[in-house]
Write a structure and sequence with these properties.
By secondary structure, the chain is mainly α. It contains 8 helices and no strands. The protein is 70% helix and 0% strand.
């Protein structure tokens, strides 16, 4: 399967250690978190899902050790409506980006728990796919390029500012998607 993840990033993940993989997926998921939490806010019965998502993203940042309950978290996440197949598919803007955010978290949990570089690449691919779609739908946007830059930064060994940059990027993405909803 070909992914949007740059080859240098994929190779660094495959050649790096577990802590590097865990940091990479934590940062990817942090950038996607506002798309899930923000787009699902106010939906009846989804409070526990939003709490679970936010707690999982927080716990992913403990990159010095794998999450021992990652398999259980994946099972819980896979029950989310966003990850359930439907005959109609996903056509709504909010549902599309919430799906990619849930998918990103799924792969992040798999990678964090197992140290799998392939799961980490899939996590990054989900984020890049969503940003590519956002770029195609928002005039003059550069979200895909920014995601590629931040993915490379998360593997550089210099993590200072990575969390702040990821939070800021996530907020910008959320604002862009909300802007699409109001049209």
């Amino acid at each position: 399967m070909e992914t949007l993840v740059e080859e240098a990033v994929a190779e660094a993940l495959r050649g790096g250690g577990g802590e590097g993989i865990r940091l990479y997926v934590a940062a990817c998921t942090e950038r996607m978190a506002p798309l899930f939490v923000g787009l699902r806010a106010g939906e009846p019965g989804r409070e526990a899902d939003m709490d679970f998502y936010a707690e999982s993203v927080r716990d992913l940042w403990y990159a010095d050790r794998p999450l021992v309950d990652a398999p259980e978290r994946v099972r819980l996440l896979e029950r989310f409506p966003e990850l359930q197949p439907t005959e109609e598919g996903i056509t709504d803007v909010a549902d599309t980006y919430a799906f990619f955010a849930a998918l990103c978290l799924r792969y992040a949990l798999l990678a964090h728990g197992s140290g799998s570089a392939d799961a980490a690449v899939s996590c990054g691919h989900a984020a890049l796919t969503a940003m590519g779609m956002l770029d195609r739908n928002v005039a003059g946007a550069g979200f895909l390029g920014e995601e590629q830059r931040l993915q490379s930064l998360s593997l550089s060994g210099d993590v200072s500012g990575l969390w702040d940059a990821s939070v800021t990027a996530g907020r910008e993405r959320f604002r862009a998607v909300v802007g699409r909803l109001s049209r």
